[in-house]
């Protein structure tokens, strides 16, 4: 991020505040975004250079205005604190209500899995969870929910494991992709990412930096496509976004090619970082592209 005292940085999403604390130690001003009301408990004592906005990071342009910040960092997906709290319903390793909402509004994962048309449920598991057995799982869920609705995380995790025939020594739990698909659908994470990247382009000053950390291929593809488009490497568009402005001057310049991952030391210290990918770019002086709503 090339931080300098006096700069203004956006931290999305705040989570437990790890990024914000590191930025504040560098002497910058931090505006953090988080739609999760429970995140506010980690914001105490961060000082007058810190502000927490309880909203989606896609709202940063509305909140801050154009050309207003020196850097934007997006740390995507579910936070460690959400995974560790069983009553949030994100983890298939802890029993809790089948919720999965990052905010406290909207439909829960239980609402979705118990009421969605089976073809829609299969599509969610296939597209968002990248689950190859999506139809098989959806059909089994349809038969089971007639008799007893799904309300608990371990119930769903055990059920999917039985449908797929058990772990059979696999390192990844059989319900991993099902939980990912439901979580992404419940929280509209991919459309939020599209809008958030566009909003970051709006708020960054010339020379400002954008850094995005992803944790699965769906997120990374969207970030890669956005930066490929905005750096003028292709006129193609993301499948989640409207057609791009063909021929528009590049609004970003890559800081490095491709994605960077954690080294062995970081993974040993923080195993959850093993799937993380970082992409970063600098805002050019070119006009902003059309904003994604």
Strand order in the largest sheet: 3-2-1-4-5-7-6
Q: In CATH terms, what is the architecture of the largest domain? A: 3-Layer(aba) Sandwich
The quaternary structure here is: single chain
The largest β sheet comes out as:
7 strands, mixed
Number of domains: 2
- Average pLDDT confidence is 89
Ends: how far apart?
A: 26 Å
Which structural class matches the secondary elements? Answer: alpha/beta
Indicate the low-confidence ranges by residue numbers.
Answer: none
Classify the beta-strand content into a percent band.
5-15%
Gross geometry: globular
Number of helical segments with 4 or more residues: 11
Write the element-wise H/E pattern from the N-terminal end onward.
EHEEHEHHHHHHHEHEHE
Q: Can you count the beta strands?
A: 7
Cα radius of gyration in angstroms = 20 Å
| Annotated CATH homologous superfamily of the largest domain | Vaccinia Virus protein VP39
CATH top level of the largest domain is Alpha Beta
Q: Tell me the helix content.
A: 25-40%
CATH topology category name of the largest domain: Rossmann fold
Q: What do these coordinates show?
A:
By secondary structure, the protein is of the alpha/beta class. It folds into 2 domains: 8-80 and 189-283, Vaccinia Virus protein VP39 (Rossmann fold), CATH 3.40.50; 89-187, DNA polymerase, domain 1, CATH 1.10.150. It has 11 helices and 7 strands. The protein has helices spanning 18-25, 60-64, 80-84, 109-115, 118-127, 134-147, 153-163, 176-187, 189-203, 217-230, 264-269, and strands at 8-12, 29-33, 50-53, 69-75, 204-214, 252-254, 277-283. A 7-stranded mixed sheet has the order 3-2-1-4-5-7-6, sandwiched between helices. Helix 1 links the parallel strand 1 (8-12) and strand 2 (29-33). Helix 5 crosses helix 6 (134-147), helix 5 crosses helix 8 (176-187) and helix 9 (189-203) packs parallel to helix 10. The radius of gyration is 20 Å and the shape is globular.
């Amino acid at each position: 991020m090339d931080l300098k005292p006096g700069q203004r940085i956006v931290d999305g999403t705040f989570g437990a505040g790890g990024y914000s604390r590191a930025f504040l130690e560098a002497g910058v001003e931090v505006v953090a975004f988080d739609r999760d009301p429970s995140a506010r408990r980690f914001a105490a004592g961060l000082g007058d250079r810190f502000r927490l906005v309880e909203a989606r990071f896609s709202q940063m342009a509305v909140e801050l205005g154009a050309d207003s910040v020196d850097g934007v960092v997006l740390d995507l997906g579910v936070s460690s604190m959400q995974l560790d709290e069983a009553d949030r319903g994100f983890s298939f390793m802890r029993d809790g209500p089948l919720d999965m909402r990052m905010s406290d509004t909207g439909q829960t994962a239980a609402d979705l899995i118990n009421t969605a048309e089976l073809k829609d449920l299969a599509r969610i598991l296939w597209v968002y969870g990248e689950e190859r057995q999506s139809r098989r799982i959806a059909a089994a869920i349809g038969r089971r929910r007639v008799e007893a609705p799904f309300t608990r995380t371990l119930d769903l995790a055990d059920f999917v494991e039985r449908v797929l025939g058990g772990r059979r020594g696999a390192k990844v739990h059989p319900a991993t992709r099902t939980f990912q698909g439901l979580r992404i659908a419940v929280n509209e994470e991919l459309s939020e990412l599209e809008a958030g990247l566009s909003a970051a382009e709006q708020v960054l000053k010339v020379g400002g930096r954008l850094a995005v950390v992803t944790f699965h291929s769906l997120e990374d593809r969207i970030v890669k496509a956005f930066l490929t488009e905005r750096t003028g490497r292709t006129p193609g568009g993301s499948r989640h976004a409207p057609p791009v402005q063909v021929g528009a001057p590049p609004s970003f310049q890559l800081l490095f090619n491709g994605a960077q991952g954690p080294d062995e030391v970081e993974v040993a210290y923080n195993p959850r970082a093993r799937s993380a990918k970082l992409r970063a770019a600098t805002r050019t002086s070119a006009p902003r592209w059309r904003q994604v709503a």
